[in-house]
């Protein structure tokens, strides 16, 4: 970005700021919240994308779900820790 570029010129930044104001979050906790939400969607989609043909496949899929869910919990926890209380 050069000096002539304003914040309004960045695509999606206005919507991102509006979402943060609607949820009452600053940018860092909002980013952590969106990361957590993305991880939850990823955990749900693992079961749709991959199918288990045997027990080993089923265990691998469950491990991937656990990893995505742990990342989502970490994102939500970071959002809570970054949120400023007034």
Structure commentary:
- With 86 residues, the chain is mostly helical.
- The protein has a domain at 25-82.
- It is built from three helices and no strands.
- The chain has helices at 13-23, 27-49, 55-82.
- Helix 2 runs antiparallel to helix 3.
- It is elongated and about 50 Å long.
Give a brief description.
The protein has 86 residues and is an all-alpha fold. The chain has three helices and no strands.
What is the element layout, followed by pairings?
Blueprint: H1 13-23, H2 27-49, H3 55-82
Helix pairs in contact: 2-3
- The average pLDDT score comes to 85
The run of helices and strands is HHH
Low-pLDDT runs? none
Shape, principal axes of CA atoms: elongated
Beta-strand segment tally: 0
Rounded to the nearest angstrom, the distance between the terminal CA atoms is 33 Å
Number of helices, counting only DSSP H or I runs of 4 residues or more: 3
Please describe the biggest sheet, giving its number of strands, its sense, and whether it closes into a barrel. none
Query: C-alpha Rg, in Å?
Result: 18 Å
Provide the structure class.
Answer: mainly alpha
Percent range for helical residues?
A: over 70%
Measured by DSSP, the beta-strand proportion falls in under 5%
